[in-house]
Write a structure and sequence with these properties.
The complex is a heterodimer of chains A (362) and B (131). Chain A is an alpha+beta fold. Among the domains of chain A are: 8-50 and 140-229, Probable tRNA modification gtpase trme, domain 1 (Gyrase A, domain 2, 2-Layer Sandwich), CATH 3.30.1360.120; 277-362, Elongation Factor Tu (Ef-tu), domain 3. Chain A is 23% helix and 33% strand. In chain A, the strands form 5 sheets. Chain A has a 6-stranded mixed β-sheet with strand order 10-11-12-9-3-13, with helices on both faces. In chain A, strands 14-17-16-15-18-19 form a 6-stranded antiparallel beta barrel. Chain A has a 5-stranded antiparallel β-sheet with strand order 5-6-7-4-8, with helices on one face. In chain A, helix 5 (151-158) runs antiparallel to helix 6 (161-168). Chain A is globular. Chain B has a single domain, classed as OB fold (Dihydrolipoamide Acetyltransferase, E2P), CATH 2.40.50.100. In chain B, 20% of the residues lie in helices and 32% in strands. Chain B contains 4 helices and 9 strands. Chain B has helices spanning 31-37, 84-87, 91-94, 119-129, and strands spanning 9-10, 15-19, 25-29, 40-44, 51-52, 57-63, 67-71, 76-81, 103-107. In chain B, strands 1-2-3-9-8-5 form a 6-stranded antiparallel β-sheet. In chain B, strands 4-6-7 form a 3-stranded antiparallel β-sheet. In chain B, strand 6 (57-63) and strand 7 (67-71) form a beta hairpin. Classes of the chains: A alpha+beta (362), B alpha+beta (131). Chains A and B meet through helix 2 of A and strand 4 of B.
Chain lengths: 362, 131
């Protein structure tokens, strides 16, 4: 038996097929992964992501600590409620994890991946020694992600008047506390949405209210195809400790300018000097077949990379993938799909945003 | 709970075979198989008039989870394929034993069927496999 979120019994009640996910018993789908995907693109669904790790940083030196710990610069977070996405690097510039940081009244709130929890906490605890601030994990908290074009109005109708008012005033990618709930307009689907960090009991009650309102539960299977269509990386598949953020299509999240020192900066500068050897790109297969992780990519006879994550895109009706390939390639790429070489198009992710195709053909 | 209809014979590779009144054999994948695969996104069927051999490759089914070969449960010639699966592969999930059939064979050796499992034996096989 794996770890269970507070929603575990409610997943079973909703007919979930449970699988092991990083040591947690999580719902992969509740009948049809593809239908759940379409529901989020067209209306609204709720996903239990309580397996993810919440960490609060408080104390006078919180900003200086995170400024050294993260590749993105928390100095960008001018006001309470602002958020940013960042990589946390090792000295070699390799990606230890990707995370979201929210600025709060008392410091910062981080949400990191579940599979990397122990490694992250050990690393963050090691680095915090030199700073006047404290780190506290919040394992008692649950996280519900309500996503889709109807997410905001649906959630607002179920919140207290004060919370509803608070959400109405939240800009995209902003979050904060209201009556003990942490409400943020963030997500992992490429749709409008809201993520709520709250107590276990509150999460169980709110889950029930959402389902009674007709909001469909969404499994981790659909969450994965939604994030892939949205061109969002999955840690452990699309990037890990062996690659830098520049080789992971995350350059926009790294602040290299200025005097600020951060872990991994020197290695990134060195990589910049010698030039990038690989890049993370999008691939599209406009014929039958499904691109899947680890399928090799060829340019002529030469193997030039492999798929890091791939799937049938329910929105587009064909397969898309993220792939790590050599930089500077010219010519037609092919992927080996079950002993057949199939032509693929290299495109810039995302593939889908707000329900529509957004990538451009070369 | 997966269904295991008694009128079919089953291969351990999870195809079913049903002998029709005219002696032809209809082939599909079991309810247990479609459930394990998850949503089917593509089905690659054999060509019409192709000769297939028992336990030989006769197609591919790709789901959200994985790609799996389809093996012919008996030897024979392909006399019909279910073109509806091309446009609507989800039929395999919705109706694995009726609308979601894959192809029909004119079997070359009826004795091939004796090598397949009956419903009870196949159900026991599936239960043992998922333990």
């Amino acid at each position: 038996m794996g770890l269970r979120t507070p929603i575990y019994q409610q997943h079973l009640n909703a007919g979930a097929k449970m699988v092991d996910f990083g040591g947690w018993d999580m719902p992969i789908h509740y009948g049809s992964q593809i239908q759940e995907h379409h529901i989020v693109r067209s209306s609204v669904g709720v996903c239990d992501v309580s397996h993810m790790t919440v960490v609060d940083i408080t104390g006078a030196a919180s900003q200086r600590y995170l400024s050294f710990l993260l590749a993105n610069d928390v100095a960008k977070l001018k006001q309470t409620g602002a958020a940013l996405y960042s990589a946390m690097l090792n000295e070699a510039g390799g990606v230890l994890d990707d995370l979201i940081v929210y600025k709060t009244d008392s410091g910062y709130r981080l949400v990191v991946n579940c599979a990397t929890r122990e490694k992250d906490l050990a690393w963050m605890t090691e680095q915090i020694k030199n700073y006047q601030c404290e780190l506290s994990e919040r394992p008692e908290l649950a996280i519900l992600a309500i996503q889709g074009p109807a997410a905001l109005e649906t959630v607002r109708a179920l919140l207290s008047p004060a919370q509803s008012q608070f959400v109405a005033g939240l800009g995209p990618f902003k979050g904060g506390f209201c009556e003990n709930w942490f409400l943020a307009r963030t997500g992992y689907t490429g749709e409008k949405g809201i993520e709520i960090i709250l107590s276990s009991e509150a999460a169980q009650r709110f889950w029930q209210m959402l389902l009674e309102k007709g909001v469909k539960p969404i499994g981790l299977g659909a969450r994965d195809t939604l994030r892939l269509e949205a061109g969002m990386n999955l840690y452990g598949s699309d990037m890990d400790e062996t690659v830098t953020p520049f080789a992971s299509n995350m350059a926009i999240t790294v602040v290299m300018d200025g005097e600020r020192q951060f872990i991994g900066k020197a290695a990134l500068q060195a990589e910049h000097q010698t030039g990038l050897k690989t890049e993370l790109t999008g691939l599209v297969l406009r014929q039958r077949g499904v691109l899947r992780a680890h399928y090799p990519i060829y340019l002529g006879a030469e193997k030039v990379g492999e798929i890091t994550s791939g799937a049938h895109s329910p929105t587009l009706g064909y397969s898309v993938a993220l792939a790590r390939i050599k930089t500077g390639l010219n010519g037609d790429l092919e992927v080996l799909v079950r002993n057949k070489r199939l032509p693929v198009l290299k495109v810039k992710p995302p593939f889908v945003r707000n329900g529509k195709q957004v990538y451009k053909l070369p | 709970m997966a269904e295991f209809p008694g009128e079919m014979r089953y291969a351990e590779s999870h195809e079913w075979a049903r002998v029709e009144d005219d002696g032809t054999v209809t082939v599909g994948i079991s309810d247990h198989a479609q459930d394990a695969l998850g949503d089917v996104v593509y089905v690659e069927l054999p060509e019409l008039d192709m000769d297939v051999v028992a336990a030989g490759e006769a197609g591919v089914v790709e789901s959200v989870k994985a790609a799996s070969d389809i093996f012919a449960p008996v030897s024979g010639k392909v006399i019909a394929i279910n073109n509806a699966l091309e446009e609507a592969p989800e039929i395999v999930n919705e109706s694995p034993y009726t609308k979601g059939w894959f192809f029909k064979l004119q079997p070359t050796d009826k004795n091939d069927l004796d090598n397949l499992l009956d419903a009870d034996a196949y159900q026991a096989f599936c239960e043992a496999e998922s333990d």
